Amino acid sequence: MVRIRDWVGNLLGRARLDGLALMALSVGCGLTPGELRQVRGHHIDIASGVPVLDEDLLGRLVACWAGWSVVLAELAEAAGEDYLFRPGRKVAAAKNLVSSWPARHRPPAGLPPLSARRLRSTWIVGLLSEGISPSVVAAAAGMSSPAGLAPYHQWVPPLPRREVIRLLHGHRR
Predict the structure, then answer these.
(1) Residue 52: Cβ within 10 Å count
(2) Whole-angstrom Cα distance, residue 95 to residue 20?
(3) What is the pLDDT tens value at each position of the chain, 173 positions in all?
(4) 84, 151, 147, 88: which is closest to 117 by C-alpha?
(5) How far apart are alpha carbons 140 and 62 in whole angstroms?
């Protein structure tokens, strides 16, 4: 992820900003492609210091992961009333709006192409790896129950033995 973020950060102009928006909204907030294309600058509340997405827009509480907070806050401030991803467009939900960006911007050899779905999966696995309650992760991801997280658990690394003992003894993370 670090190398992909560096590559996107070194793109020029609008390509850089759109790539950062794609990453911040998917790997930073766990939005689906259909959701991220709807987000405008004013949909992000940064008053508390943590970017929180508009609950009315998404129908759930989503706070940006710390690693993407600064980028998302800057993009939101710059966008204002416009869309964060691909601003200035006339159509709110053009076909292939999200998938066309990675098709036109290919990372150098050795790096996988960007995919909003894969970035969202990285967000889910990252939260689960941090020990965040599966019910909290599922709710933030827009899933009806934590059972929807089952396919992601294969990618979550096991906890160290000492941590397992501590948790089983009754201490919270």
Answers:
(1) 16
(2) 21
(3) 999 999 999 999 999 999 999 999 999 999 998 899 999 999 999 999 999 999 999 999 999 999 999 999 999 999 999 999 888 887 777 778 888 888 889 888 889 988 999 999 999 999 999 889 999 999 999 999 999 999 999 999 998 899 889 889 987 76
(4) 151
(5) 5
